[in-house]
Every structure is written in C-alpha cells, then in structure tokens.
C-alpha cells in the first residue's frame, strides 16, 4: 500500500512539472501576440509604389499641377514596365496575379497615385499634335485607369536620398556665407566675385547661343531645334539640364513668308542696336563707374567702417567746438569797436553827400551871374 501511494504521488508531481513546462511557453506566446499585432505593417501597395517609383526603367517627368511640382508617368509606360519586369509584382503577395488595370485602380483608391489630365487640350499653332509630356497638369474628373493618354502623378513623398540630406544642411550654411560676404578677406572676395561673374556669363552665353542656333536654323531650314534644355523652365530637372541633343521636332514646317519677315525684323533690330551703341568715351565712363563700385565693395571692411565712423564723429565734434568758440569770440568783441566803425562809415557818406550838394549849388550860382 505504501508503495502504491508513493507511485501515485510521483505521478502527480510529474504531471505538475509537465504542466509548468507547457504553461511557460504558452504564456510567453500569448504575451508576445499582442505586441506583434500592435506593430503596424506597411501596406504592400505602399512598398510596391515606392519600388516602382525608384526604378529608373519606368520613364517619368516633372510637371506643374495646381502650383506644385509633381512627378508623373504615362499609363502605357506603366503597362509596358509591368510586363517587362514581372518580378516587381512579387511584393504584392497574393495580389501579384492581378491585371495592371486592377493594380493601378487599387493605387488610386489608396491615394498613392492620382490621375491627371493636360491643361492645354488643343494643338498649339505650328504643332501637328499634342505634347507627349505636358508641362502643366490638372486633376482628372474620372479616377480610373486608362492606358491611352492617361497621366498619373505620385501622391506620396519620395524617400530622401543621401545627397538631398546633405544639401538640406548645406543650404543654410550657404545662405549664411552669402550674408557674411562683406566681411570676407580681400582675396576671398575676388574669388567669389569672379566665380559668380563667370557663372552668370556662362548662363547668359548658353541662352544667347541657344536662341541664335534656333533662329538661324528656323530661318534657313524651317526646323525647330533647341540645343540644351530651357534653364528658365520650372519643370526642368537636373537630368534634363545636362542633355545636349535636341528632341524630335513635332511641329509642321513654317511658311517661307513668315521666316523672311522675322529675319528682316531681326536684322533691323541688330542695325538699330549697332547704330545706338555707345561710343568709346561713354563706354569708358561706364567702365570706370562700374570699376569704382566694384572697388568700393571689395575694399570695404569692418575696420575701415569703424575707423571712418570714429573719424566722422571726431570731425563733427571738432567742427562744433570751433563754431562754438568763434561764436563766443565774436560775442565778446567790445561794442565800441563795431559802433565806431559803423559811425565812421556813416559820417564819411554824409560828408561826401554834402560836398556834392555844395559843388552843385556853386556851379548854378556861377552860371546865373554870368548870364
């Protein structure tokens, strides 16, 4: 009996140990489950949109939509991109087998992209068709996917790259450096001045050369050829700035009469500018004036400014003291001297007048006696 009781007690203790071992992991998993559920997972479509946007194989451009620069792509390019790179679909998981139309419609419902339409819906004069990449867009009324002439703009912020982060710290320092230009040493001022003048001259030269090439080729051949991108355009990106070769001319050839008219107008403007150009003396005066202004800017320094202010202040004090002393001295002159001088002058004038009157009376008496 005692042996049976001991066996039963041992069995119960073994069951308790098993229950403790089993209960430990279960309780930890039950505690960890709410923590895993509390961490929000990123939407697969958000990841898909970010990966597609970062992929350089999908052609995109920048445009202005409601006074905001947006990056957009075309529906036909997106369709071709998905067909050529099916591995991008793997991010979607169970939705990777959906059609392109369904994928884009889901992106539209999640506000990851928005359908846009061109602002200029009519062909401009001299063009055969509408631009393939319009520079100005507006929101389309129907937010559904269409492959034909459909434009879609990304609605989320792109991940900041390393060089953008570096520039965000550099720009405030650059602005501070510009404000501190007057206190630079002379040699630094020379370097900054010639660098800025060279950059400005380069930009103006590029614009003039671009316009001259366009005008000559347009007048002679009737072709619209723009070498270099338009630097003044708001939608121009850095990748487009380094492009040299022009895009394909999509406009019709202009009439020879209009080309001849504009050629004559350009020739007339050149002749007028040459006729009214300043002479050598005027150019020398302008050059001297500009050089004086530049010299004043380059030679200015805080020490000279402070010393000039001190000299001006001391000079003003000396002038005031001299004026005060001169006024005091003149006020302390004895009045007898002034009175005597004025009285002597007045007596002399009276005596001269009396002598003239007596001479005239004597002459009249002499004439009357002779008569």
TrEMBL record:
Taxonomic superkingdom: Eukaryota
InterPro entries: Sec62
Region described as Disordered: 1-43, 322-371
Gene Ontology terms: cellular component: endoplasmic reticulum; endoplasmic reticulum membrane; membrane
Keyword Transmembrane: yes
Biased composition (Low complexity): 1-12
Primary site of residence: endoplasmic reticulum
Membrane spanning stretches: 162-184, 190-221, 260-277
Compositional bias ranges of the Polar residues kind: 27-38
Bias kind Acidic residues: ranges: 346-363
Membrane topology recorded in Swiss-Prot or TrEMBL: Multi-pass membrane protein
Keywords: Endoplasmic reticulum, Membrane, Protein transport, Translocation, Transmembrane, Transmembrane helix, Transport
Subcellular localization, as worded in the UniProt entry: Endoplasmic reticulum membrane
Protein's GO biological process: post-translational protein targeting to membrane, translocation
Pfam families xrefs: Sec62
Protein family (similarity comment): Belongs to the SEC62 family.
Entry protein name: Translocation protein SEC62
Organism: Zea mays
């Amino acid at each position: 009996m005692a042996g049976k009781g001991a066996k039963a007690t041992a069995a119960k203790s073994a069951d308790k140990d098993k229950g403790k071992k089993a209960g430990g992991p279960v309780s930890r998993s039950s505690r960890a489950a709410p923590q895993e559920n509390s961490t929000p997972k990123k939407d697969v479509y958000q990841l898909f949109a970010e990966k597609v946007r970062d992929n350089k194989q999908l052609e995109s451009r920048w445009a202005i939509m409601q006074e905001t620069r947006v990056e957009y792509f075309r529906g036909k390019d997106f369709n071709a991109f998905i067909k050529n790179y099916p591995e991008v679909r793997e991010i979607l998981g169970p939705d990777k087998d959906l059609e392109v139309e369904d994928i884009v419609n889901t992106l539209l419902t999640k506000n990851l992209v928005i359908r846009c339409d061109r602002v200029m819906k009519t062909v401009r004069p001299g063009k055969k068709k509408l631009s393939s990449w319009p520079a100005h867009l507006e929101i389309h009324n129907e937010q559904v996917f269409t492959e034909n002439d459909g434009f879609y703009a990304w609605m989320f912020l792109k991940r900041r790259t390393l060089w953008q982060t570096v520039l965000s710290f550099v720009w405030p320092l650059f602005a501070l450096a510009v404000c501190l230009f007057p206190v630079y040493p002379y040699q630094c001022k020379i370097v900054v001045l010639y660098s800025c003048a060279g950059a400005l001259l380069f930009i103006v030269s590029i614009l003039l050369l671009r316009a001259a090439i366009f005008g000559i080729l347009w007048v002679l051949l009737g072709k619209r050829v723009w070498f270099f991108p338009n630097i003044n355009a708001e939608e121009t990106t850095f990748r487009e700035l380094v492009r040299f070769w022009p895009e394909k001319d999509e406009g019709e050839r202009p009439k020879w009469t209009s080309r001849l008219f504009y050629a004559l107008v350009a020739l007339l403007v050149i002749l007028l500018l040459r006729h009214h150009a300043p002479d050598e003396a005027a150019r020398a005066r302008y050059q001297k004036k500009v050089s004086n202004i530049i010299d004043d800017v380059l030679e200015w320094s805080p020490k000279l400014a402070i010393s000039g202010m001190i000299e001006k202040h001391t000079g003003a004090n000396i002038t005031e003291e001299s004026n005060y002393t001169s006024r005091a001295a003149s006020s302390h002159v004895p009045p007898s001297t002034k009175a005597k001088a004025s009285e002597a002058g007045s007596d002399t004038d009276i005596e001269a007048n009396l002598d003239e009157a007596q001479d005239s009376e004597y002459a009249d008496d002499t004439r009357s006696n002779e008569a």
